[in-house]
Amino acid sequence: MERFEVKRGLVKQITADGGLAALASKHFENIEASGENAFTGSHDIMTSIEGHISEKGALIVDVTNVPPNFDDADAMVRARDTRKRWTTFLDEATGYNSKQRGDKAKEWAKKASKAKSAVSAARHFMSMSDNVSHEIQSQAEALIEEIEAALADNDNTRAAGRGEKLNKLMNA
Fold this sequence. Notes:
By secondary structure, the protein is of the alpha+beta class.
């Protein structure tokens, strides 16, 4: 399963143009709508494609690929065409090119990493320090719970924000 950021305002446009299934149908065969802004289908080496727009406005896709017959020139041409269609679909569905999608994915991962680091640092600091008040410890534990819940909910932006707040609390 992969997650892609979608450019602000694009979800509204996709919905107005018939939804994610309509967009996918432009690029792939065998596409069926499976809800509002959701689809399932297949196309050549992509034996299963499932996609939807999350509540937070991200494109979530799960694709199963099978390797083409490398000895068959026609199969290789079809496989390249399928990959090209996939890239074009992602460009249109997200509003970002492949480099921008990679940069957005790095940003997303960095937010999760920062939040996890803040939790680790706070726990380490609280275990090593004797002069952290009970009030500060309980505030820190509440923030840690919020961070862990946000990470479990795949809300890295909220987790990173809570992580910054936890860092400020521990450095106060």
